[in-house]
What we know:
The protein is mainly α. The chain has nine helices and no strands. The chain starts with 15 loop residues before the first helix and ends in an 8-residue tail after the last helix. The mean pLDDT is about 90.
Amino acid sequence: xxxxxxxxxxxxxxxxxxxxxxxxxxxxxxxxxxxxxxxxxxxxxxxxxxxxxxxxxxxxxxxxxxxxxxxxxxxxxxxxxxxxxxxxxxxxxxxxxxxxxxxxxxxxxxxxxxxxxxxxxxxxxxxxxxxxxxxxxxxxxxxxxxxxxxxxxxxxxxxxxxxxxxxxxxxxxxxxxxxxxxxxxxxxxxx
Length: 191
C-alpha cells in the first residue's frame, strides 16, 4: 500500500484515502517485522506530514481575493489547522505569506467593526441630547462625555458631527454650573 502513495511533489489532499489505507496496512505489520520496514514507516510518516501541509496549502488557496467579516469563521478554522501543524511543518507551507496577509486583513476588518460599534454606542448617547440643555441634562451629558473620552482616536473620527454637538452642549453645561455656583441656589428650571 505504501508504494501507491504518490511522490511528495505530487501529493495532494485527494491522496488522503491512499495514505490512510497505507497506514492501516502498516499498522497490521507484526512487531517482529516492523524493524525491517523502518524506511517504510519513515516514508509513511512523511507522506502523512506532507498531506497535512497540502491540506493547509489548498485551503489557503481557496481564500477569496476580497475578504469580509463573513470569512472570520473560515480564517479561524484555517488558523487552527495551521497551529495544529508542528513548527517544522508550518515552515513548509509554501503560501503562508498569503495566509498572513489575509489574516491581517480580517483582523483589520474586525477592528473596524469594533470601532464602529463603540462609536455607535456613544453616538446613541449623544444624539438624544437636546441642543439646548438645562441642569436636568447634566448627568446624561456627563455620561456621554465620559463614554466619548474612552473612545480611541479612530473611533472619535467616526462621530465628528456628534462630537461637535457634545462639545457645544458641554460648554452650555459648564456655563449653567458656573451660573449655579455663582447664584448658589439656581435650579435647572430657573435662570
